[in-house]
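$ run holo --ligand "iron/sulfur cluster" --emit tokens
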Amino acid sequence: MATGITTGVEAAVKHDDLAQPLSREAACRLIRCPDEHLPELLSAAVEAKERFKPRVITYSRKVFLPLTNLCRDYCGYCIFRRDPGQPGAHTMTSEEVLEVARAGEKMGCTEALFSLGDKPELMFPEMRETLRRLGYNSTLQYLEAMCELVLRQTTLLPHPNPGLLSAEWIARMAAVSPSMGLMLETTNARLLAAGAAHDNAPDKLPSKRLRTIEEAGKQRVPFTTGLLIGIGETAEDRVDSLLAIRELHERYGHIQEVIIQNFRVKPEIPMHDWPEPTQGDVLRTIAVARLLMPEVNLQAPPNLSAPSYEDLLDAGINDWGGVSPLTPDFINPERPWPHLDELQRRTESKGFILRQRLPVYPEFLPAVASRPGLLADRVRAASDPHCYARRAA
Ligand code: SF4
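-- output --
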């Protein structure tokens, strides 16, 4: 942090002392700081990142497996979800899962990211019929079996993102995957009101999502969560969402990664005329997240900030998230992931080293690898002595 003139940023940060995590009051001031103070905010965030993980930026080389795009929720920004019978509606077969996973294995991928709609069988008889044909009672049961299939038959490690989970299902998923995720998105429950982003998305009730994240903490499951910014929340809501995550992490120590994802508009979505967050909004949110949680891995997806995604490194991220050399980003299909050589070049242009990690972060890996059983065997086989991916980028 620069010393000398006392600016709004310095005053806010000094007020709390950088040795302490940032308070809500200071975070709310910083997230709305004027443009002239932004460079100082960013430099404080990068300094915090460098104290936490000097010089290194990580990514996970993955395949994206959209196990089913049927979903019982209707988020206003979602282009992924389908109703049964809609063009593109699809539930992957086990053969399709294995085919993609094996193709990814050949390209050096180490993560099988399972993304899917939330419990579509509760709403759609067609999904119940699909599951019956496949031999399962629920989407989660099918997901569990597919994670185990990938684990048994490939070298990839599953990372499921299945939506809300009960305590029982967290335990079952943790037996077949070293980490898992659920985006908190926001703590603003008003986004479930008529006409708002979560108008018809009962699984986006913040209290339910916080309960899943807390339950994962009780079970010590390495957990990925984060914010989706620009969907109708205020800057203060972003701070409150980050504080809710920080509070759970302070209690359970299980948040392996916080993602700051920015809303991107698409002509086909209900929110097609919604304004996107500015690059300044994205950078401020990342920087404040870094100062609120100086020792938590912080990720922002490069494809959502193209073409100048390397600027995200100026705000204190230490990870690019999952990047696939094989499969598209089914959540933002119009935004291809950067080529890995390009990602490396741009990361190095900012003075950092790019390293390939596994879906479970290095500091969380030893606990998973020390358990008995297939999952731990696979995690040990996939990791190098520093707990990064054995097959380096
Ligand atoms: S964002 Fe997720 S929960 Fe919302 S509609 Fe899309 S798939 Fe369903």
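-- notes --
The pocket of iron/sulfur cluster is lined by residues 71, 73-75, 78, 80-81, 117-118, 201, 203 (CB under 6 Å).
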